[in-house]
Structure formats: C-alpha cells, structure tokens
Amino acid sequence: MTRYVVIGAGAVGLALAARLHLAEIPVALVARGASLDVVARDGVRYTDPTGTRAVAVPVADRAGTRLAPDDVLVLTVKAQQADDALGEWAWQPVHDPADPHALAADLPVLVLQNGLATEAQALRRFATVLSASILVPAQSLEPGAVAVAAADPAAVLSIGLAPDGTDARVDALVADLQRAGIAAHSTDDVLPWKALKLLGNVNNAVELLGGSDEERKALSRELTAEARTVLEEAGLEPADGAERDEAVGRIRIQPTEGWEPGRASTFQSVARGASSVETDYLNGEIVLLGRLHEVPTPLNAALQRVVGASFARGEAPGTVTVADVRAVAAR
C-alpha cells in the first residue's frame, strides 16, 4: 500500500498530513526542530471550520525516516528550499529486499511549490516527478499547528506528470486526495495551472508593504497584469480557473479560529522568523521570463528588490512601502 512521506511541516505539509491521516491513508510527516518535537508529543493541531483536533500523524526527522519501495515523496517546503531538499533526499536508501541499490530517486516525488522552477530541479534527480498546483487556505504561525479555513473541500489540486502527461500513479494520488476531503483532478498539462497560481502569488509580498489598502490593491492589480503579459509572451497561457471550479468544485472560505485573511505563504515565513522568503521564485520568476523574452517587468523587479533588501536587513513587515516599490520601478 502506498505511504505518503510528507517532507516539510509548514502550513501545506501539516494540512496534507493531517487530512491523509484522518482518512486512514498511510502517511509519515518529516519535520525538524520545534515542529518535530511538538508533533511527536501532541500531534498536529488541526483547526478548520468544524473545530480543532489533535491528529496523531507519525513523524520523524529525515534520519529517522525509513523509506520503502511503495512510498511516494511529497515535497512541501518553500520554493527557495526545494533544490536543497531534493538533493538531500534523492540519494537516501530505500529498504527494498529485491533491490539493494534502490534509492529515493527511484520513488515518485510530488512537488507542491509555488512558481515554475521546482519541476526541473526534481527531474535532475528523480525519474518520476508529479507536479501540482495547490490552493489551500492554510496558515501556520506556530510549530505543529495549522488552521485551514475550508472543510469541504479543504484544498484543491491540479496534478499531472512533469513535464507533461498523466498515468495510473497520478490517478491513484487523485483518488487518495479525494478520500481525504481534498478536491483534486488530473491533467496532462499542469503548467498552465501553475501559471494561473503564479498570477496570484506575485502579490504575496505585497502583504509585507506599508501603505493603504487601496495602494496595495492597485499595486497588486498592476503586478498581476505585468505577470500575465510576460507569461503569455513566454507561451505559458494561464489556465481558466472556472474550468477547475466546474470539474471539482471550489474552496469556500469560512470563519476559522487562528486564520486571518492577508496571510499568504510569504507573510507566514516572515512571521515565523524564517531564514529566507520565496519572492525570488515568484516575482523573480516573472523577472526571469521577462529577461529571457525581452519583456519589461519594472514592478515585479522592484518588488523583488525592495522586499529582498528589506528581508536581508532584518526589517519588520510594513517597514518598506508601496511608495518605495513604485520609486524603485521608476528608476
């Protein structure tokens, strides 16, 4: 029977591991530091619109995780951490009596990172890479605790093989996720779904800026328009989200203890005191494509620059402003 080895105990990792365990689907969570200690002692504290429960997800660190031939790796770390994590895991032994040379690189790996970079990083090492665009209103600001502001479904995933195609492994994953209360569908071309999510992700760092709500909303609209122009010029036409809504349903945000709007993944990283943020793989992805295809990206480049420098200086959210981004874009 397939076991899902969920690598990373942030919001996405905790939410997926808890939902799979609640559905009695074999799962193991890989965590470290305070998250490992808390989950090992108390379980995952999983809160959704129906309430809070402790979910006794099996957990270990990488050294304590014994891989088996039927495992599927699920990489949930942030985009800027993915390449290091893939390198650490690919050459770990798989305990297969039939193949003493088996390694984790022989196992399927599902990558759930924002942006467009992780699939190529994974394919350098793993023969079978499953790629997904995930929508999940999950927030984790304390070790071992996650609040998900939706219950039916808790998340929505579009899943396919990287670089393209689908197969029985994708179908099996979709079926397991659906059993776990997650709306999922397979696609033989996952890249447009990744591009669609990136249109929203380019606004993640806007939550870190000072300024009025109207100033942030206006900047977000312009960032998205600039990103769409670049994606289309690069031949990456974003998917139509209405098609997914019709096929598998959409997330309905509901009041949930511990969950607040305006706290996307970049905000959560800063609030937790993370050592890096994913802006280089979100706005930076648009900047990269713009440079490759000779399309100007002044706003995405300015946001990447301003937030990156502010984070390097150790500044609190709100220190740099929308006006700072516009000033840099106008240089």
UniProtKB/TrEMBL annotation:
Full protein name: 2-dehydropantoate 2-reductase/thiosulfate/3-mercaptopyruvate sulfurtransferase
**A family per Pfam:** ApbA_C
- Give the species this sequence originates from: Cellulomonas marina
Name a single GO cellular component.
cytoplasm
Which residue range or ranges hold the Ketopantoate reductase C-terminal domain?
Answer: 193-308
Name the coiled-coil region(s). none
User: Which keywords fit this entry according to its UniProt record?
Assistant: NADP, Oxidoreductase, Pyruvate, Transferase
Its lineage opens with: Bacteria, Bacillati, Actinomycetota, Actinomycetes, Micrococcales
> Which part of the chain is the Ketopantoate reductase N-terminal domain?
5-150
- Example GO molecular function term? NADP binding
Instruction: Give the family from UniProt.
Output: Belongs to the ketopantoate reductase family.
The answer to whether the entry has keyword Lyase is no
Top-rank taxon:
Bacteria
